[in-house]
Design brief:
Elements lengths: L4 H39 L3 E6 L14 H6 L4 E9 L4 E2 L13 E5 L3 H5 L3 E4 L11 E4 L1 H7 L11 E4 L2 E9 L6 H4 L1 E5 H7 L8 E6 L4 H12 L7 E4 L1 H44 L1 H9 L4 H38 L7 H28 L2 H5 L1
Parallel strand pairs: 4-9, 6-8
Antiparallel strand pairs: 1-10, 1-11, 2-4, 2-10, 3-7, 5-8, 6-9, 7-8
Length: 377
């Protein structure tokens, strides 16, 4: 291996690429799963949403008034809040045509919404007793980006054009993974929406926080509680299930890339086997001399098998290091914790050694069967 370093490096490179791909494919989804788990732990998996579904005749249903009060009657429910969709659209200024809505919705909301969703204000303030009855709005993160509002200066707050008048921006919300519809919305106080926006007062989404252990039970009775006359018209969901489904989708793609990594490892093993066969042909005189000096077939076989395993093992170690660096770099770029499963690290080296043993078995046996007289001729 020292006398032909370039060939040794090229032979081990295939093993390294295969092992690196397998380590990265196992470690990156594990890092993503840990990030999602941490995010769900911070946001809580005990959030339920209830929205109107459809009637038996295929028409859009509505939630009755007082939905929050009804939800709070359920024992395990800790808190509840509601959103009401208005028919208005928002624009950056009064010079923009009315049909250009930027894909943003205007909702009526109460001050307790922020606490129920576990959200945060990145700039300014949320709706409260001091401002919810005035023409002020709170922007979701995506809505703020589309309207060109990056922060709120209390001395000179920005304004948006809504329902033929100016509304002052009171605050900008941070990310809300469990309520992505809020990120693309503009929130107005409930009373203000009824007085200025023609809002009918019917909620379109009810958010409920329940005891963690009682979430399935609350989910079963929430529809009947909100609309006792037609519980089938209430669509109850658990937002955290969507994030878990997203992780499941990522895992299915990981299985595909894991197979591709296995193919790369197989190709690397074929390269090692080819190198060892050529090595036997080139070293016939060395083999014959060793046999003539008393080396047994077992010793010759062990020499070439050890060389093959060492070559693959070095490639496996390099591959593990590359996989670790790739995982750490990608996790850092995504803001995830880098998770390195021990099974992937140890398994990468072990698999490379096994591939080396299998790849070197035939060349080693061929070298051992070579007669000394023929090898020295």
């Amino acid at each position: 291996m020292r006398t032909r370093p370039v060939r040794a490096v090229l032979s081990a490179l295939g093993i390294a690429i295969g092992v690196a791909a397998m380590v990265a494919v196992l470690a990156i989804p594990a890092s993503s799963a840990k990030a999602i788990h941490d995010r769900l732990a911070a946001l809580g998996t005990n959030l339920l949403t209830a929205a109107p579904g459809q009637t038996l005749f295929g028409e859009d249903a509505t939630l009755p008034d007082g939905a929050v009060d009804r939800a709070l009657r359920i024992g395990p429910v800790q808190a509840a809040a509601e959103l009401g969709l208005t028919s208005q659209s928002v624009r950056r200024n009064d010079h923009i045509p009315a049909e250009e809505t930027s894909g943003l919705s205007v909702y009526a909301a109460h001050p307790e919404l922020l606490g129920v969703l576990g959200g945060e204000i990145v700039s300014g303030a949320f709706l409260g007793p001091a401002n919810e009855k005035f023409p002020v709005v709170v922007l979701g993160r995506e809505a703020a980006a589309r309207l060109g509002v990056d922060h709120v200066d209390p001395a000179r707050p920005p304004q948006v054009w809504l329902a033929g008048r100016w509304f002052t921006v009171a605050g900008v919300l941070g990310p809300m993974p469990l309520a992505p519809e809020v990120e693309r919305s503009v929130l107005v106080g409930w009373g203000t929406a009824q007085a200025l926006l023609g809002f009918d007062g019917h909620p379109t989404t009810v958010y409920v926080r329940a005891d963690e252990s009682q979430v399935p039970a609350v989910r079963e009775v929430l529809g009947a509680t909100l609309n006792p006359a037609s519980p089938e018209e209430v669509d109850v969901r658990r937002p955290s299930d969507a994030l878990e489904a997203q992780q499941l989708t990522e895992n299915s793609y990981s299985a595909l890339f894991l197979g591709l990594g296995g193919v790369a490892l197989l190709v690397g093993g074929v390269g090692v086997a080819n190198t060892m066969v050529i090595s036997v042909l080139e070293r016939r005189r060395e083999i014959g001399l060793r046999r003539a000096l008393g080396a047994t077939r077992r010793q010759v076989r062990g020499q070439f098998l050890a060389e093959s395993v060492l070559l693959s093992g070095l490639g496996g170690i390099v591959g593990v290091l590359i996989g670790v660096l790739a995982t750490a770099g990608y996790a850092l770029s995504q803001g995830w914790p880098a998770v390195l499963p021990p099974l992937a690290l140890i398994g990468g080296i072990a698999v490379s050694a096994v591939v080396g043993a299998v790849a070197g078995a035939y060349p080693a046996a061929r070298a051992a069967r070579l007669p000394p007289s023929r090898a020295l001729a």
